[in-house]
Amino acid sequence: MLNFDFTRPIAKELNLVEAKLTENVDSKLSLLNEASNHLIKAGGKRMRPAFALLSAKFFKDDLQEIIPLAVALELVHMATLVHDDVIDNSQTRRGRDTVNKTWGNRMSIYSGNYIFARSLSLIAAYERSDVIEVMADASTKICEGEIIQMLSCYNVELGLKNYLRRIERKTALLISLSCQLGAMLCNNASKNDINALRLYGYYLGMAFQITDDILDFTADEKVLGKPAGSDIRQGVITLPVLYALKNDKHNKELANLIRSPELCVSAAERIIDIIVNSGGIEYAYNVTARFVYKAQRQLEPLPDVAIKSTLLYMTDFIQERAF
Amino acid sequence: MLNFDFTRPIAKELNLVEAKLTENVDSKLSLLNEASNHLIKAGGKRMRPAFALLSAKFFKDDLQEIIPLAVALELVHMATLVHDDVIDNSQTRRGRDTVNKTWGNRMSIYSGNYIFARSLSLIAAYERSDVIEVMADASTKICEGEIIQMLSCYNVELGLKNYLRRIERKTALLISLSCQLGAMLCNNASKNDINALRLYGYYLGMAFQITDDILDFTADEKVLGKPAGSDIRQGVITLPVLYALKNDKHNKELANLIRSPELCVSAAERIIDIIVNSGGIEYAYNVTARFVYKAQRQLEPLPDVAIKSTLLYMTDFIQERAF
After folding, report:
1. Which whole-number Å values give the CA distances from B145 to B89, B168, B199, B293, in the listed order?
2. Where are the domains of chain B?
3. ipTM of the complex
4. A124 and which of B7, B87, B136, B167 could share a cystine (Cβ 3.0–4.6 Å)?
5. Does the pTM of the predicted model rise above 0.90?
6. Residues A144, B27: C-beta atoms closer than 8 Å
7. Does the CB of A78 have a partner CB in chain B at under 8 Å?
8. pLDDT tens per residue across all 323 residues of chain A
9. Alpha-carbon gap, residue A140 to A133, rounded angstroms
10. Which residues of chain A are within 8 Å of residue B120 when distances are taken between CB atoms?
11. CA distances from A74 to A79, A177, A200, A295 (A)
């Protein structure tokens, strides 16, 4: 990995985001507080807040006004995670017990809803209906994405288009939204600037999810915070799998294994073995590189301020992390 | 029950709401459509849309502009129902199979989220940040209410205050919001008008939930669309139960039964018997009457238009439905 801390220009603001996260899920209900704080303390890269702040930094130095947005974006992300953990019946995330393991499914569903509602209040306080509209639209699409992913499991007939649509909604949309909204809250950002950052976030988000999908095969549990091969054990067909299903000499065997929820678990080692040796990892890495290039291109027309190089480095970082 | 159709003045608009409900959950995902349409076709009284429309009718005749709000309010209500059915593991609602019985918990969680996101888009389109703020705030409180209800089950120590807070958030808030927002979208409604309708909805919602809680003891499955005594079987302590726990000669036996999730199911007949004979139903009915009176009082300063008598009748209707 590159030795580069892309959050340095916004370190002060990210500390504020961290404090405000806790403040904003503060409820009179102690159990809800516990569950929410457990989620917050489980950490995470705070990538969405970072992108909102970095995007705004193109247009102004004082980012005070962006903090509530940054907090709201992380809350939306957390709300999706806590519901996903119920769906997947996950026991750990980021190396810690999940909310549903500790407090049960009911608490997880409700705290996800609560956290999402809180993020809504933060966004509403901007009194910017265009911001709310973009956010509502993205939320709808993210929900659809979750359903698409669920329906696509164990289905070896679905191709690249289905995969790209899934990762778009799972990851790229919210990162794209973060960049877009960060810019939208700056008066001096032009429509073209906002659109460029929206697309930057989109392509970078696509690249990020593909590297995540690669890491699920290549990294160990310590790095992932969850067992390696988690996706394929649940029948989630990612880009390296698609490549192997199409091109590997064992592709018929692979398809037969993946079609069966039982075999996805019991024959996981064999499945991973076929995929890792198929060239699918390298293929996925090349696709990542294409998205990274597209993300970089979006930065060209943007104002030439110091932050630009940070966003440029960021794309390299995304690309390198899969190695 | 009173033989009075309070929806007559807005019958045309409610038909439009019905059509738009289906239109607004239309997704390219056929399974999501099926689940959403299943929910819509399961019916319901469309009470929240009706209150929004009736409230607006005080101030204007053409309610075209209120339709998206009315649809959004019903969608919010549906989203809470579909999540509640997962939580309660309900098999039927309004006499039909629930979404989670037919499609499973995962689909229920996602379709609840999707439906809520769709309602958000409808509200966002008004470009009224005050409307969004009120809605976001209510959503947060409704989520808290669900958690309070969950935590209050089987707890015989909690009193009237806890009960009132629960039903406020479970029912009164969204009805209150419906009345308030219906008026807020009319330019000629004064702050006092809006507040009067907000309080009318609040008190009426409280009365409505108490009668609902009474009906859970007195009505049969055909009327309820779910088995009678459902609440107490799940340890939900409602007003008649609170009365019996405090005043009945068998109150120690009752407390011991309710404390145990197993006995709430196996000894449900005995529990219901104690409560029905305790005078708790009559007590709850009297509390309903007090809320109905408060709701009626709110109408006094409102413009004296034809719709006023409808809202007045509505309160009588709520009071009478428990008999």
Report:
1. 18, 8, 19, 25
2. 8-320
3. 0.85
4. B136
5. no
6. yes
7. no
8. 345 677 888 999 999 999 999 888 777 777 777 878 887 877 778 999 999 999 999 999 999 999 999 999 999 999 988 888 777 666 666 667 777 777 777 888 888 999 999 999 999 999 998 999 999 999 999 988 888 888 899 999 999 999 999 999 999 999 999 999 999 999 999 999 999 999 999 999 999 999 999 999 998 766 666 667 889 999 999 999 999 999 999 999 999 999 999 999 999 999 999 999 999 999 999 999 999 999 999 999 998 888 888 888 888 888 777 66
9. 11
10. 120, 132, 135-136, 139-140
11. 9, 12, 19, 22
DSSP A157: T
**In A, which residues are within 8 Å of B30 by CB distance?**
none
What's the full length of chain A, in residues? 323
**3-state class (DSSP) for residue A88:** coil
Whose tokens are 């019946």? That residue is: A89
Number of H helices and number of E strands within chain B? 18, 2
Residue B98, burial from CB neighbour count under 10 angstroms (0-12, 13-18, 19+) = buried
> CA A250, A252, A258, A264 torsion: positive or negative?
negative
Residue type, A214: I
Question: Which residues lie below 8 Å from residue A113, measured CB to CB, with a gap of 6+?
Answer: A79, B83, B116, B139, B143, B146
- From the CA of B100, how many Å to the nearest CA of chain A? 13
Query: Do A303 and A193 form a contact (C-beta atoms < 8 A)?
Result: yes
